[in-house]
Structures are given as C-alpha cells and as structure tokens.
Amino acid sequence: MKKLSLLLGALGGAMAGYVFSNSKLREELSDAKDAESAGKILAKHLQHDSKKIGHEMKQFVESDEIQQNLHKAKKYVQDNAKKLQHDLKSMIGKGAGKAKKVVVRATKKAEVRMKKAVKRVRRKK
3-state SS of the chain? Predict the structure, then answer.
C-alpha cells in the first residue's frame, strides 16, 4: 500500500505541476461549467502535450550522453556478474573440498568401527 500511495502522490504532484505551468489550461479550466467539461479540457491538453513529451523523452533517451551512461551501466553490471560468478565458483570449490574431507573422515571412522564389529562377532563365536 505504501507504493500505491507514493505513486498517487507523485501523479498528483506531477498533475499539479502540469496545471500550474500551463496558463492556457488554467484559463480553460477556470471557464469550465462542471467537472465533466473540466475533465474533457484536461484530457485534450494531455493528449496534445503527451505527444510533445513523448518526442522529447525519445530524444533524451537517444542522446549520446544517455547512451554512454547506459553503456557504462551495462558494462558495470556485466563486470559485477562475472565477479559474482567467480566468487560463487570459489565458494562451491571450498565447499566441495570440505565435503571431500568430511567424506574421507566418515569413511575412515566407518571402516574402523566395522573392523571392531567384525572382531566382536568373531570373539563371540
């Protein structure tokens, strides 16, 4: 629920900023007769301005600076992924070495106990 309220607050703030920055929209909204006509006016302006905003965002994303930053971010993620993969392999290798030692110890203990059990059985016969 925190995310929803944060999203609604952000949208409300963005909408207020949009209304305050657009004087023509403010004038038309002040002349609106009811909420329905105000909604239609707002929708008309949003539709018109969203094309401009979309075009500006496209130019922004395609700009050289953003593309360089995206390239840097991609390289950073790849380098960290390689480092994490190497760390994981080393941890698995250490775990495998420890597991091998445990198995060797358990095998030796089992062998010793088996020999003792065989000796006990032979003594009882």
Answer: CHHHHHHHHHHHHHHHHHHHHCHHHHHHHHCCCCHHHHHHHHHHHHHHHHHHHHHHHHHHHHCHHHHHHHHHHHHHHHHHHHHHHHHHHHHHHHHHHHHHHHHHHHHHHHHHHHHHHHHHHHHHC
What is the distance in angstroms between the CA of the first residue and the CA of the last residue of the chain?
77
What average pLDDT does range 56-76 have in this prediction? 83
Angle at 18 between CA 16 and CA 21, to 5 degrees: 105
Interval 31-56: pLDDT, tens = 888 888 888 888 888 787 777 777 77
Cα–Cα distances in angstroms (integers) from residue 94 to residues 81, 97, 125, in the given order? 20, 5, 47
Give me 46's structure tokens. 């949003």
Task: State pTM to two decimals.
Answer: 0.37
- Total number of residues shown for the chain: 125
Cβ atoms < 10 Å from Cβ of 32: 14
